[in-house]
Structures are given as C-alpha cells and as structure tokens.
Amino acid sequence: MDHHGHHGQKEGLHPFEVPDPPYKCQYHSKSKGPDPHNYEPRALPQKIYNNVLEMIGNTPLVRLNKIPQAEGLKCEILAKCEHMNPGGSNKDRVGWRMVLDAQKQGKIKPGDTLVEPTSGNTGIGMALAAISYGYNLIFTMPEKMSEEKADVLRALGGKVYRAPTELDHDHPDSYVGIALKLAQQPNHHMLDQYSNASNAIAHYDATAEELIEQCDGKLDYVFISAGTGGTLTGIGRKFREKLPNCKLVAVDPVGSLQALPGSINGPSGTYKIEGIGHDYIPLAMDRAVVDYWVKADDQEGFDMARRLIQEEGLLVGGSTGSTLAGVIKFAKEHNLGEGVRIVFTCPDGARNYITKFVSSGWMIDNGFAPLSSLKDPSHPLHNISWKTLNLKPLRLFDDKLTIGDAIQAINEGNEIVPILKGGALFKIINRTHLCTKIASKNLKATDSAIMEGTRDFTAIEEEGLDLAQLEQLLRRNNIVILRERDPATKAISNLYAATSSHILPVIISKMAQ
Prior knowledge:
α2 (91-104) crosses α3 (121-133). This protein is of the alpha/beta class. The strands form 4 sheets. The protein has a 6-stranded mixed β-sheet, sandwiched between helices. It has a 4-stranded parallel β-sheet with strand order 5-4-3-6, sandwiched between helices. A 3-stranded mixed β-sheet has the order 11-12-13. It is globular, with a radius of gyration of 25 Å. The chain has 14 helices and 16 strands.
C-alpha cells in the first residue's frame, strides 16, 4: 500500500484547517526491502462457519428505491450494508484485523490486556477477536456515545471507562488520554485504530474487493463518512489501483475539521452524530485519495437515517444518514442521472441507538423534532398545563461549582443541582448520580463538579407544554428539566425539574373522575 504524507501547512489553508500529519507508515509498493504488512486473502461465504470471526465481511449491497424516487434522482444508489457484520458494524473488520496483525507480529500474546479508545464499534470488533484468541479488554469512550454500545462492550467481557465528550483528544482526562495512561501498565497494549495501518488494510484487502466484485467493476462514485479514515483510505487506495475512474466522496459532519478545503469546515464544534468527524486528522487517514468532500449536519444525518429505516427498511445508524444526505446533495449539485452508479457505506446499525435518534423523544429532547409531534388528544392529560403541578424553581449554579459545593447544595434540600455554562444548561447533579460518582472515583471536595455531572435528562422549553407531552417525555428519561426564559432577553430565568412522581397524583385524580 502507498502511504504518502503531507508535511507542514499547505498554501491557502483556511485558519481552522488542521494540516495533514506525516503518515505513520511510509511503505509503498516500490519501497526497497520486505513489505511490513500482513495481507490476508478475502474469505468467501461458507455454509457453516467455525467461529464468529469467519462471519465478518461479505456484506450485501442493496439498491435504494423509495428515497431516490422521492428526491427526483435517476442515478442508481446502492447501500453497502456493513451494519450486517456479526458485531453490527464495519469496525468488526478493523478490530479483528488489528488484533490478528499484532499477534502475528509478536506485539501481543494471549492473556495480555488490550486497551482501546473507541466510539464503541471498534471495541466490539476487538472483543469478538479477544473472545476467540484469549485477551482481556479495557475500553474508553466519550460520554456522548450511546449506553447501548457500552453495555454491549461490558457484555462481551470488557471494562468500560467514560470520559467527558467536550475534552480535546489530547487532554489527559479525555477518552484518548485515559487509554494512553492505562496502556502504560505491564502487558497492556493500545493498538490504536487512529494510527494503525491495519485499519485501512482491512478495507484494502476485503471491503474494496467485495465492492469491485459485487458491482462487476462498474462503479462511478463511492461515498464514505470520515471517522478514523481507515475505510476511505483502504477503499480509496485499492480503487486507485483497480477502479481509477471511480470518484471517492468523503462525508464529514458539521463541526468536524477533516474536510478539504478547510474553508468548508467552519469552526470546530460539538455534534451528536457518533463515530465520525474529528478536530484533528488521524494518522490512519489519507486525504489524498479523496476526490470530493461534502459536509452534513446533525439534522440532515438523523432525518435521513430515520428515512432509511422507515422508507427502505434498512436499520442503520446516524452516520449512514449523514453519508446518504451527502450523496443526495452531491448528486443534485452535479446532476448525476441515469447510468451513474453510486455506492455508499452503512457503517453501523440502528440497534446502537435505540435510546438515541431512533427514539422520537430523544429527537425532541435534542431539538431535532418539534414538541408538537407528541400532541395526543386521546391522552388523559391532554391540554392540562404543566403549571398545574406547581413546581418550585431550581437553584441555579455556574460551572465553577465544586464537588463540595454540590454536596452542600444537596444537603440543603436541592435534589437537583443544575450547572449552567455560558448561560445554558450544561449538566445536572442529583443525589443518586453523586453517590455513584463518589463511590466509583477518588473524588475530592475541590474537584470540579461539571466534570462529574450528567446529561442523563431531558431539557425542553416550557412554553405550551401540556402534561400529556411531559408524561411521554418521562417514559424516556426519569427527569425532565423545563426551561423558562425571560421574554425580553431570551435568557434562562428559571429551571424546573419534573418526574413521574409529580404527574402520578394528576393521573390518579383523572382515574377517579
């Protein structure tokens, strides 16, 4: 494989752009000396598999029907269903391959502990390999990643550490920083999908070859969402060799800094789509193989993922929605018509996000769907204002709050301690959450409370809310925070916390009528 690097800042870069780093692997096909990489023959489908690892790959290619028609597109759009791998994502290929190559190279041995920073999917792929080969597992994840992924990792025998999402990747307490510290222990190893050449080679050897075979070599565009860069690098390099006329289009979430030219990125920011995008360029990513970049925001990604589920029956994750949103924008802008074949990858499945974008309540919580979508005239609490509950305003705290301050506030009768940052509700602390944190971590009274707070709540605007909507929101989260704003400044003036215990008396009284 060719590993070309770009060194230093390029001319004309947008100020927000991160320059390409030197690629960790400098080997290419004309290098002198032995090839340092291990290449595996692509496995073919079997009637009976010897273990779960043999099931990885050979995922189906499915033609979209309703969505292209609804969007007025004549081009052929095919979905590479990587979510149908046994662990539920394309990272099954990567996790297995990193473990296999490291073992063959003598870097790890059965009984060792593998430490990996992950959004969840690579960890699951590594866990499948660890079960077969005999490794212990520790995973670190940002807090924004779904609890479903963390629960699966624990079920597969891994230990999971969560870190605040807002921390930069190079912060010592970020999910990457924690993994680096843990990997320094004896017989602990961090294979690191972000810099590991096996990440791209897994797709170079298998995914790309599958696509060429499935399409009989007839493929005009391939769209891939940009995360660690392994998929786009592996497929891109193989296609440069075997399908040089096929254009690779990378899709990057708004808020990420991976796209080129840098002028299309804008400033770095947070986003809800999981598993793609970064504020830096991973060493595993070769942006030189990308012909075009497209940006997609959270709304576009989640809406399209829900459409793929509802209109095509494909149970895909949010990053797939982002990728297809990019396909549709690009196809319309470039007038791609009949005879043009497009493939886009589906990195993972909807089952990772049952409590996230698949849930209408979550979509409302996070501002991606209107509260009015929960209006239900048949509900016994329909049109009864939340104000009939006579909730008391919460005492507000800023981001300078310490653990000691939070303990004192709770002891003074504040069951919910809301923490505001920049005038917006950022996290909360309650008695149960604080007890769990103190029991699991060596916290000091002077530690920052905002680092230990939780976002495990629903926060909505109170205006026009009825108890029917509130009751439905409480089915998803035990706590709903209602925001009351100053009419003139629109700043938060009061916060209220509602739980099922507040609504139950009203429901009981309705039953008695």
